[in-house]
Amino acid sequence: MKNINFLFVLIFGLSLGLTSCEDFLEETVKDQVSVDYIYNSPAGLEVGVNALYNQMRFYNLPSGDNNDLWSNVFFMVATDLGLHRTWNTPYGTGHNPQSYTGSKWTQGYKIIDRCSAIITSARSIQMDDAAKRRLVAQARVIRGELYLDLKQMYGGILIDTIPTTPQNINDPVEYKVASDADVYKLIDGDLDYAIANLPFKVDPGRYGQGVARHIRGKSALWQQDWAGAAAQFDAIINDGTHGLVALADVWGQNGNHKESLFTYQKDFLLGPSDDLAGGGGSWLSSVFTHRTYELNTSELVQDVAYGGQALGWFYPNNYLKSLYDQANDLRFKTYYYSDNYLDYKINVPGNPKFGQPITNPAIAAPNGNYRAWHWSLKKYHDTEKLPMTSNSYKDYMYYRLAETYLLASEAYHNLGNDGKALAYLNKVRRRGYTGNPESTVTTFDLTAWTLNNYLDESARELAFENNRWFLLKRLGLLVERQNLYFRSSPSGTISGEVQLKMTPAMVNMPIPQSQIDLMGKPAGFNVGY
């Protein structure tokens, strides 16, 4: 009997992308793959694992404008570092089980179910044992990652390792919130297996030991296992497979460099749709960028150097801006589009001032116009983005070593070793001030490890990278800091900025109402909604 079923009907005929799976090594598209083939043959097992990557890319990097995009953008911007202008409003009237997107919950559990199917079926497949373990390890990293994701987002969650089959889909269902101990036991067991069976060096778009240890270290931090977290992060840092790269290369066009622990692969020629091998066009490069070309159409046309087609829905806020030493910290102009109008040149052919600086936006729009002009994010800048479109097919770095260093710093501080904690913190900071990942310049080093120093340096390095929301929640600071600094400007002007209040209940995201109703509204979910 299936003790804990899912909150939706799973289509057992492999609706999770197995009709067009991605093989990142051979870039082969599979069509109409049978269930028997997937779960009963060595080649099918590999196809099944490839499909998991395809679905994880959709889970974390969907194409277009939809609730799936919003489910990711929310965690990138709805923190103490963000400013909302339009589109969905964080912590607004739609932040409830009836209205908020259920994408992460439903997609997460669907992929978990397919991970479990692969893990279970592999036991009976006759094939090279080492090859089998490596495939299973990838499925177990993904399952462990998703359970940690769901735990961080929702608080009370269900766990289940029995895959849905035609034989058990109608079995009695028990909807029960799993204990923290049981959740972390499952997460850590999956990740420990992966660590034991994956190499550090893998091909782009594959999970290796580095990302498995990184996620395992995060799990340890949530459990306040500081020694366990430090050991995982040290193993990544000391192995040498991964290393910090030059500052200019971190968010350059190549996302598959040494600093990347894992990068989602995109390829227009193999797409352009989420259910095809190349994936659909992502809007991330447009969501956080101002539309400079709307300032003065006689002076500016769309230019990829200034972001190209843009949306200007969300921006970094003035609090984040205040954290940078703008004169010396190179990240200020590397990670963000300049907000100095002198850096933008008139590019309309025939304009007599072609190549000269544009008109000062403060003169052109004295009351402010956030849509056309605001300090904005450059991390997802795509020099190859197609003109007049928000679609980007740039590979998307999702986990990187700079975060490993910063999390390791926190772990060592909690172990009472501030010398090691500062060494790791300043490793990242020196790169920020010099551009050189191997810099030994101590001029701008932090000399004391404090929580504020740590949070500020983490913000300067990792802003808008899908980690701040979770870090603040883990430290118990999310509501306090979001209410202090997060702002919304529905009018798109300085004078229109307002505070959006986050309630304590919102530290656990709203489970979709349809799923709550199906469960019979059991205790333990969505406290406060």
UniProtKB/TrEMBL annotation:
GO terms for cellular component: cell outer membrane. The keyword Transmembrane helix does not apply. It is found in: Cell outer membrane. It comes from the Bacteria. Keywords: Cell outer membrane, Membrane, Signal. Residues 301-520 form the RagB/SusD domain. Belongs to the SusD family. This is RagB/SusD family nutrient uptake outer membrane protein.
